[in-house]
Amino acid sequence: MLGEPGAHGELYRSRLCDRLGAAQALKNGAHSEGWVRATRKPGVVCCARFALSLQWLAFHSPPQWGAFMKTDIHSTSRLRRDPLVRGLGWASALLGVPQVVAPAGFARALGVGDAFRHRSATTAVGVRELAAATGLLGRPHPAWLWGRVGGDLMDLTMLTRALKHHNGRGLGRTVAATAAVTAITATDVYAAVTRTRRSAMELTAATTVSRPPDEVYALWKDLERLPDFMAHLEEVRVTGPRTSHWRASAPFGKTVEWDAETTQEVTDRLITWRSVDGADIDNSGEVRFEPAPGGRGTEIRVTLRYDLPGGALGQAAARYFGEEPHQQLDDDLRRFKQIAETGEVVRSEGAPGGKRARGEFPQHPARPLTEGELKEALA
């Protein structure tokens, strides 16, 4: 403590050493005091701890880490074959080796000088990169990708502070390095998000149809008629006794497709199915048919489970899940009820089109029909 004998002397010597170190840094050609300051900032320390913690957890306990993230993790073999994951692993190795072997030269190449603190920070970043390379190439796991994201944030923080306090010598190289790290960060974020699967979404809905269970069961079992009442489906094609091919709408005029297999059938009571390996969107579902109380027909209970990955595939499913997905499933069952009871979907006069459910979208209330719509309605 400061009140103890010799405490003031220790404090004085500490400050003197700091000043001597700064003077030596200038003598060695340090071009950016901001790089030195950045390595001592709490924010940088937090980023470093975040990155290293992710990588430590990935190496020591992948299953527990996956549970902590609440994700369904891709298999190690799939990630090991992933060209982007392997590319990032080799990129980490190629960046890490020179930072560890020749930190002074690497720091000078960044335009921040080769003072002791610069070399120390560069070496630490190099060790981090080599750890990421070891994980991504040897034991790939999404946590290693998130570790790279945390490391990128640390690098950007240090480079930004270096630019803020730069004295102009080597500024162009520092700007170029910052731009490169920004691009790398975007790539790492994309890789981390798209290689980490989120928890499956489960939708449930129920309705009562005024028809006996055998008729309702037979109607639903006719898979090729599902697009008549399920708005997101474009086509279901039966490909075998228990297999089928599905195509669904996606944003921007795109579609997603998958093959499915019927896993269980109990006549007039139950139908279950699931997608097979390689599906754009992993999914499964079941439909239960129960006699309604008082002989009022059949109660239908539907459960759908979709395993949505992040990024591009998540967006591809947005059309179905993006706007009140439970309400959309309720609407699908409402249309099924109408088909089962009346043979067609009840439609307003202002909504021309075929009887397939997709013909209802989009509806525009209180507007005149276009010439094309009028021709279609009169056809």
TrEMBL record:
InterPro entries: COQ10_START, ORF3, START-like_dom_sf. Residues 342-379 are annotated as: Disordered. Signal peptide: none annotated. Residues 370-379 have a biased composition (Basic and acidic residues). CDD domains: SRPBCC_8 (cd07817). Residues 209-333 form the Coenzyme Q-binding protein COQ10 START domain. Transmembrane segments: none annotated. This is Coenzyme Q-binding protein COQ10 START domain-containing protein. The lineage of its organism: Bacteria, Bacillati, Actinomycetota, Actinomycetes, Kitasatosporales.
